[in-house]
Amino acid sequence: MKKPVAVTDLRPGMFITLPGSWADHPFLRNQFRIKDQKQLEKLKASGIKQVTVDLLKSAPKHRERVDSIGKLAYVSHDDAPETAQDDPKEQEPPAKWNPENLVDPLLCEAIHDRTLAPEKKSQIVYTHTRQMMERLLESPTAENIGVSKEIISDVTDLVLAEEDTARGLLRITDHDFYTYTHSVNVGILGLLLSKALLSHSDGHDMHELGAGFFLHDLGKIKVDTAIINKPARLDDIEMRRMRVHPYQGYKILKAADQLSEESRIIIMEHHELFDGNGYPRQLLADQIHLYGRICCIADVFDALTAERSYKKALKPFDALKLMRDKMPKHFDKELFTSFVKLLTRS
Q1: Which of 72, 291, 309, 341 could form a disulfide with 9 if both were Cys (CB 3.0 to 4.6 A apart)?
Q2: Is pLDDT at 156 greater than 80 in this prediction?
Q3: Nearest to 177 by CA among 228, 226, 243
């Protein structure tokens, strides 16, 4: 059941649909559950006066509040603006994503539009690549993986060819810890570091590297969602279950006939640490492939800068400082120095 609600009457925990298109507001999605007061203030500052609240998707404590006549100052349906969001067909995603609806056409258009300003292009590409990864993780069929790799290949070309847009992608990365957001962030960071390190060499397939970085956590779809979304640190048993995800990702790509050597290395080695204390094989130093070492740095950095229920997100500078001071043996020092230079130039 959905009801129109004034923005001033919203509370964290309510699931809302924003009016208009994604380009009319500063949020990455038109539909989401409000997570905190900071997000509410951002919504008020956007100028939006009214949204639609989905009672079934909102936190239970809000359902009676929203449904009670007179407890909230609703704008009537007659006064509500007519937008594409008023169409129920537009509000609910398909039950299953397929190659025809996995990718928003705006993403392909933006990637190849040379007239778009870098700032605008980077925003569109980030938003819709993130959307594509969310859909892929919901429906990771062989066909969808293949389509995703084609789009990732185009994004890779964009990062390699358009410096200003690539820098824009680096600046606008979001910091929640949904797997799809993390996948896109690590994809961008991994590609940019690889570009800095490998651009003068012809011995690397950058398209397959990009696919490996973006799909590095694909195996998490085989891990219990209660473990993935646990609002606290994992215990030893849960951590053992989490540590199967590199091998699960390997199996998924192999079954989909999309397993390249680059993606195999990245998926299997992105949690291996330079001091031999990583997983799944406790590889040491140069036993870890360059691609795995690159992804490990990007993966840890994005995890540190992500907001979790049991920890605050670190600012980029603080995350780099922590990696340098508290994890000095985890990373290849030369690669880490290059990563710091990459971020401080952006």
Answers
A1: 72
A2: yes
A3: 228
pLDDT one-digit tens code per residue, 61-116:
665 555 553 344 333 333 333 333 334 333 444 447 999 899 999 999 999 999 99
SS3 content of the chain, % helix, strand, coil (to 5): 55, 5, 35
Residue 310 pLDDT more than 60?
yes
- Is residue 43 within 8 A of residue 7, CB to CB? The reply is yes
State the pTM of this model. Answer: 0.72
Give the per-residue pLDDT at 233.
Answer: 86
Token representation of residue 228: 């993935």
Q: Which residues pair with 50 in a beta bridge?
A: 6
Burial group, residue 303, by CB count within 10 angstroms (0-12, 13-18, 19+) = middle
Q: Sheet holding 31-33: strands in order across?
A: 2-6, 50-54, 15-17, 31-33
How distant is the alpha carbon of residue 10 from its chain centre? 26
Strands (E), 45-148: 50-54
Q: Is the dihedral of CA 322, 325, 329, 335 positive or negative?
A: positive
Among 209, 190, 225, CA closest to 300:
190
Residue 4 sits at φ, ψ, to 5 deg, of: -75, 135
User: How far is residue 330 from each of residues 21, 133, 182, 304, measured CA to CA in Å?
Assistant: 43, 28, 20, 14
- Torsion angle (degrees, nearest 10) of CA 167, 169, 170, 172: 120
Assess whether pLDDT exceeds 90 at residue 38: no
